[in-house]
Design goal:
Layout: E1 4-8, E2 12-18, E3 21-29, H1 33-46, E4 52-59, E5 65-69, H2 79-88, E6 94-101, H3 108-127, E7 129-142, H4 144-156, E8 160-166, E9 170-176, H5 181-191, E10 197-207
Antiparallel strand pairs: 1-7, 2-3, 3-6, 4-5, 4-6, 7-9, 7-10, 8-9
Helix pairs in contact: 2-3
Length: 208
């Protein structure tokens, strides 16, 4: 697994005008290829009167799924430069749709490549990006008496509490960088006088 990846901070639309053509770049995070395709379909439906709805998406922390479409623009002048911009910015789990309303002035192949790639770049700058880092999940088990204080200590120490479940004991799930697992285990033993249970789970990504 990749140690970290970047994605778009939020869904949104950025508009730019080039030689009287309007370019609207819609960006959104997408956890799966199905989500990305559904987003593309939604934008197409919203802009059925547009000249083109070109798209690109990258799914997977290792960019294992990369797809793009020129949607009627000359081959390689729209979807590919959009995809290249996403990859150049190290974007993952993201989908981009650039809707073009033709303004009567032809841009030529070079102009189209700059316009479509640039629209994605400007939208990323406008909407912002965030970094997600790989964590190891750890489950802590403590009695009710210690649970409140332990949660406060975890937050004070800057640890990400992902979930808390109350039953006979209290189960707290945290995310830990792999390199800090043993240091954390020692800290936990000290903070709870050795009374807390500690179990390592799988891996996940969280905000850096």
């Amino acid at each position: 697994m990749q140690d970290e990846y970047r994605t778009v901070a939020r869904a949104g639309v950025h508009e730019t005008e080039i030689n009287r053509s309007r370019f609207l770049c819609a960006l959104a995070p997408a956890a799966t290829e199905e989500e990305a395709q559904a987003f593309v379909a939604g934008v197409r439906k919203e802009h059925t009167d547009a000249s083109h709805n070109c798209w690109a998406y990258v799914i997977g922390a290792d960019a294992s799924v990369q797809k793009a479409s020129d949607d009627g623009e000359p081959g390689g002048t729209a979807g590919v430069p959009m995809l290249q911009m996403l990859l150049r910015r190290d974007m993952r789990y993201v989908v981009a749709v650039v809707t073009r309303y033709y303004g009567g002035v032809k841009l030529g192949a070079g102009g189209l490549i700059r316009a479509y790639g640039g629209a994605v770049g400007e939208a990323l700058d406008d909407l912002g990006t965030l970094t997600r880092r790989r964590f190891r999940l750890a489950t802590l088990t403590v009695d009710h008496q210690r649970a409140g204080r332990l949660q406060n200590d975890l937050r004070t120490a800057g640890r990400a509490v992902r979930d808390v479940r109350y039953a006979e004991d209290v189960t707290i799930e945290v995310g830990l960088p792999e390199a800090e697992v043993e240091v954390f285990r020692a800290w936990l033993a000290d903070a709870t006088a050795g009374s807390a249970g500690f179990a390592l789970g799988g891996e996940a990504y969280g905000d850096a």
